[in-house]
């Protein structure tokens, strides 16, 4: 079976498109790599998303997103806060990386942020999502915030840097890197060649 | 007949893809808008292309380009200098904007830069291109560098700012803005709806 690795940030609107598209894929194994863009952006000297720092680009993105969502048949509501704090969701996703619930969890967090305009930085939001898919929210939230798991998310940032990742989503098929939801079809075509 | 407006910079590698694709289009009227990204980037506080300033992104772009060119059936050689000075080519293109030779001129300048690795900032390079399509190079280069025409290119930058253009290529179909070669198919689909 073909394989693809997907690096994504729950705060990233273009990651939303790719996570939902990949969560639907049946014919490829997805390796989910939740990570935080913040530390990557910080190294560029940016203290926020470029979509906030560059006003014209940011304004454009909110015109681009409804068109993109229509293209892929995905729901869309512009979040009332952007970018949202994604560290808690990323920590939980780290725990689920190799679990059968990972795709569903990622899709639901993304929909909470970009369809339902919910604050995914809020523990109650993540707990509700975990419960909705039949998981023990309390135990997972405690494990997610354990020192060990926090250290794993730090290590994930180092891994991203080592791979020269500069944005999200970013895909790898073997050593081939593809940046952006606009390259997901190419990456999948290469994976299934 | 459907219409699309294409804002592009001869120094921009993703503009290269779009200019060549549009130069082949028979079923849509293209309004060519040569402009300079430099002044737009300067307002962001950037003194060079983001592909130079952001090393990881720049390194990626040179892996992305051969794949993109293969996808669109376009030739590709990574320029030995990037970004090249595009002001002279832009000034000539401004003169040709409403002339039958504009598409061919733009395509040849782009190929000089991104297939033949020629210095399009050099007057001899632009003169050779003009001559190759049967035009009076000497007269056009003189007109291109007249005070009036220089002022027109300045005004073009103001026009780009007024439209909130932040990168190239950028397309308009009526008031709808599309940024990047990755959106050209969507823009064309919308234009011919």
TrEMBL record, chains A, B:
Protein keywords: Isomerase
Domain DSBA-like thioredoxin: 4-185
Pfam families listed in its UniProt record: DSBA
Any single biological process term in GO: glutathione metabolic process
Keyword Isomerase in annotation: yes
Active site: 12 (nucleophile)
EC supergroup of this enzyme: isomerase
Sample GO molecular function, one term: glutathione peroxidase activity
Catalyzed reactions per annotation: 2-hydroxychromene-2-carboxylate = (3E)-4-(2-hydroxyphenyl)-2-oxobut-3-enoate
Superkingdom of this protein's organism: Bacteria
EC code(s) of this entry: 5.99.1.4
Family (UniProt): Belongs to the GST superfamily. NadH family.
PANTHER family according to UniProt: GLUTATHIONE S-TRANSFERASE KAPPA, GLUTATHIONE S-TRANSFERASE KAPPA 1
Protein name: 2-hydroxychromene-2-carboxylate isomerase
């Amino acid at each position: 079976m073909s394989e693809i690795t997907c690096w994504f940030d729950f705060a990233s609107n273009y990651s939303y498109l790719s996570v939902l598209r990949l969560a639907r894929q049946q014919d490829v194994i997805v390796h989910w790599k939740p990570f935080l863009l913040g530390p990557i952006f910080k190294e560029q000297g940016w203290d926020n998303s470029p979509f906030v720092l560059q006003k014209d680009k940011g304004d454009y993105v909110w015109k681009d997103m409804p068109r993109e969502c229509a293209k892929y048949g995905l729901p869309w509501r512009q979040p009332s806060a952007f970018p949202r704090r994604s560290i808690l969701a990323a920590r939980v996703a780290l725990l689920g990386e190799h679990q059968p619930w990972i795709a569903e969890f990622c899709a639901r967090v993304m929909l909470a942020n970009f369809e339902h305009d919910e604050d995914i930085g809020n523990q109650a939001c993540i707990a509700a999502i975990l419960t909705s898919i039949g998981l023990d929210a309390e135990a997972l939230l405690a494990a997610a915030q354990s020192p060990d798991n926090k250290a794993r998310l730090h290590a994930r940032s180092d891994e991203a840097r080592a791979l020269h990742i500069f944005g999200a989503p970013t895909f790898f098929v073997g050593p081939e890197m593809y940046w952006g939801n606009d390259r997901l079809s190419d990456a999948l075509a290469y994976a299934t060649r």
